[in-house]
From TrEMBL:
SUPFAM superfamilies according to UniProt: OmpA-like
Cell compartment(s), UniProt: Cell outer membrane
Protein name, UniProt field: Outer membrane protein OmpA
InterPro entries per UniProt: Bact_OuterMem_StrucFunc, OMP_bac, OmpA-like, OmpA-like_sf
PROSITE patterns: OMPA_2
Domain spans labelled OmpA-like: 184-302
GO cellular component assignments: cell outer membrane
Length: 302
């Protein structure tokens, strides 16, 4: 049983109950729109995402909180409160059962740094009460948890406002190469920090990459594990071009992992998300360099 010692109230409009969060919760983003739409997932992603589009007054809030044990510790008390207030849980899932990577990039998520979603550890819930919908998304980054709540209420009368925290806590810094295996074991993901790309480039030309060697060693020691290599870009250029570049970055890393380090091809899939998942701001050269990256994400240990 989860028994937080200190609590705070998260006030939501009209249809929703006042949700109780740990007292250490810190708001990173609040948005209220008098009339908008929100895509609500009603099932896991397989070849497509089952969903409905809810319309009405939309209120979204993002909170950052020291994580107690896991993402279920964040979600369960909120789910229980919704059910006690008469909300019907329509759909709930965790990570792979949701559809993993594909699910995450089909749903509506507040961009980083206000909200972080670890592709190896997130949970989602959709609930309905009369004509109103509520969705919850929880995840973590290091020892911090993130909670996104979205309420769509056709009957609410609200004014449009947007408020972002002035200085959200940054994500953990890229780990040293020697810590790659430790990061994978602890969080299910790790940045391949020595795979450096110039803006628009997908080339990997160095003779050796310690991060790929460490990843290969980890995979060899854990033969049941499969991974996804996920490519990212900075925010220079258009969305479509950056999606293509990010996919090619991941594919370049996969080719080296298979051909140079002997990892079986069926254990490594690739994805590209363009500039949609930054880990820092894109308005400085240093930030753009940090965002141009490839990450390894554990997709299965069975």
């Amino acid at each position: 049983m989860i028994r937080p010692l200190l609590l705070m109230v998260l006030a939501l409009p009209a249809q929703a109950q006042d949700l109780t969060l740990p007292a250490q919760a810190r708001s990173t983003f609040t948005e209220t729109r008098a009339l908008a739409s929100h895509r609500v997932a009603t099932g896991p992603f397989r070849d497509s995402l089952p969903s409905v589009t809810a319309e009405g007054a939309v209120t979204r809030q993002v909170w950052q909180v020291p994580i107690p044990q896991g993402t279920l510790d964040l979600l369960a008390p909120l789910r229980d409160q919704l059910e006690a207030d008469g909300w019907a849980i329509i759909f709930s899932c965790a990570t792979r059962a949701c559809g993993g990577f594909d699910f995450r990039f089909e749903i509506d998520v507040t961009p980083a740094p206000e909200m972080f979603v670890d592709l190896s550890d997130f949970r989602y819930l959709a609930a309905r009460k009369s004509d109103a919908w509520t969705t919850l998304l929880v995840s973590r980054s290091g020892d911090l948890g993130y909670i996104q709540t979205t309420l769509v209420d056709p009957e609410a009368e609200v004014e449009t406002t947007v408020k972002s925290a002035s200085a959200p806590v940054p994500p953990p810094a890229r780990q040293p190469q020697g810590d790659l295996a430790e990061a994978l074991r602890a969080t299910g993901r790790a940045v391949l920090a020595d795979l450096v790309f110039e803006t628009g480039s997908t080339d990997l030309s160095a003779d050796s990459y310690p991060s790929l060697a460490a990843l290969a060693e980890f995979l060899t020691a854990n033969p049941e594990t499969t991974i996804a290599l996920v490519g990212h870009t900075d925010a220079e250029g258009g969305a479509e071009g950056n999606m293509a570049i990010s996919r090619r970055r991941a594919q370049s890393a996969r080719t080296l992992l298979i051909e140079r380090y002997g990892i079986a091809a069926n254990r490594v899939e690739t994805h590209g998300v363009g500039f949609f998942a930054p880990i820092t701001r894109n308005d400085t050269p240093e930030g753009r360099e940090t965002n141009r990256r490839v990450e390894a994400v554990i997709t299965s240990t069975e």
